[in-house]
Amino acid sequence: MTTPFDYAPAPESRSIVDIKPSYGLFINGEFVDGHGKSFKTISPATEEVLAEVAEADDADVDAAVKAARRAYDRVWSRMPGRERAKYLYRIARIIQERSRELAVLESIDNGKPIKESRDVDIPIVAAHFFYYAGWADKLEYAGRGADPRPLGVAGQIIPWNFPLLMLAWKIAPALACGNTVVLKPAETTPLTALLFAEICQQADLPPGVVNIITGAGGTGQALVAHPGIDKVAFTGSTDVGKAIARTVAGTDKKVTLELGGKAANIVFDDAPLDQAVEGIVTGIFFNQGHVCCAGSRLLVQESIADELLAKLKRRMSTLRVGDPLDKNTDVGAINSAEQLARIRELSDIGEAEGAGRWSPECVLPQHGFWFPPTIFTGVTQAHRIAREEIFGPVLSVLTFRTPAEAVEKANNTPYGLSAGIWTEKGSRILKIASQLRAGVVWANTFNKFDPTSPFGGYKESGYGREGGRHGLEAYLR
Ligand code: NAD
Ligand code: MN
Questions:
Q1: Is it true that domain 22-259+461-473 has CATH number 3.40.605.10?
Q2: What is the model's pTM?
Q3: Positions of the chain with pLDDT under 50
Q4: Does 220 contact ligand 1 (Cβ within 6 A)?
Q5: Which of 109, 157, 336 to probe ligand 1 with, by most ligand atoms within 8 A of CB?
Q6: pLDDT of residue 4
Q7: What is the model's pLDDT at position 36?
Q8: Domain with CATH 3.40.309.10 in the chain
Q9: Which stretches within 298-425 are classed as H helix?
Q10: Sequence-distant (≥ 6) Cβ neighbours of residue 66 within 8 angstroms
Q11: CATH of the domain spanning 264-450
């Protein structure tokens, strides 16, 4: 594609990262061989095999849970909050010191642009540890009584879209409250969690406080079902979330579920359109659209729809798709062949159901998993692409005439994780926001995250909150 001016390649160097040929499990402060098989993690941008990673079996899960229990009973739950805080601050500072290494590794294993891992993911990861370090000695102000107690051992399972950020959302509040953890990263993106394990060693974190076990759904199932777990924290798909809820039903395990979304990004006729276009682009093309709170449904007021779409298409034509390690890249690789197949399938269904498909001209790399930024116009509520989560760089455009119609369409979804409102009118922002059944509502911005702000869903988007003071409640009695 020719743009007004072309960019020379600006690749970030890989040499800062040392990827080992194979990795074991991090149990009781040490890397150990698993009893099970191993699996490969690849770079989705090139399909290059990066490393062999151990697949934890039932015995490994048991060893990790027992290590976490010992560390909980003997060390971590007894340690004063101000001492736990020191470890969390230390981890936060090491993350900052090693941020370039973490960002490069995240982009290699996940496929996300280095611009995002460097400027969004890793800074927020460090901020999360700093923020919850600050809470560790102030838990009596968490709103759970004068001497709130931890839950025990937390089993934590995270997805592949923000590997290290989801780890931080899970581990930082758990540790601050005095719990110990066994965390399982997603099978396509285990490498930064294993680097985090090294950071725990570097921080002299007592053995067993953090355990990292790798594997796929079977390992996750074994962790959820293990009787030694007091709390399950899961982020991932609604289907797996439901399965987890069934597994823990009837036990006294506590659960938080952060599931999918199908957010409405609502643009009113008085909105600043250029700013809204940037927000729409951030809303759906940030992180290839692999974002649970992505603004995947654009609801635009009919009178400005043509003008807005013309501006949006012009802006999309300048998005650079390609090498995640190039500092100019806006849209990186789709995380896996499976995810690419799902995005293709739903997009083809959108076309077959009569919606108008458009992508800017763009040359996609020969190897790896790629999908161009795409919009569908003429979408109605009945279309599957308006109802189902695509989890890719695909935007469905719907129109509305009145604010009431916008609210009705926005809420007409089984999900309720996030939403966006674009208007110059402050009173309208407040009124519409109060009518939206969504955990997070952004006004004149989108996809902004802050450790002090709670995040979580309504309906099939799950339950429980992560972040802020609310995030402590999930880890205290
Ligand atoms: P997934 O549910 O298949 O996998 C998520 C994690 O669960 C992985 O670590 C996986 O190995 C594990 N897992 C799979 N089956 C399991 C089982 N039966 N028991 C226990 N663990 C199991 O999800 P995915 O398709 O890899 O990720 C995309 C989905 O995650 C999307 O639907 C997205 O909306 C959702 N997501 C939600 C949030 C949020 O905060 N709400 C954030 C990121 C992703
Ligand atoms: Mn990978």
A1: yes
A2: 0.97
A3: none
A4: yes
A5: 157
A6: 59
A7: 87
A8: 264-450
A9: 305-316, 337-352, 384-387, 403-411
A10: 228
A11: 3.40.309.10
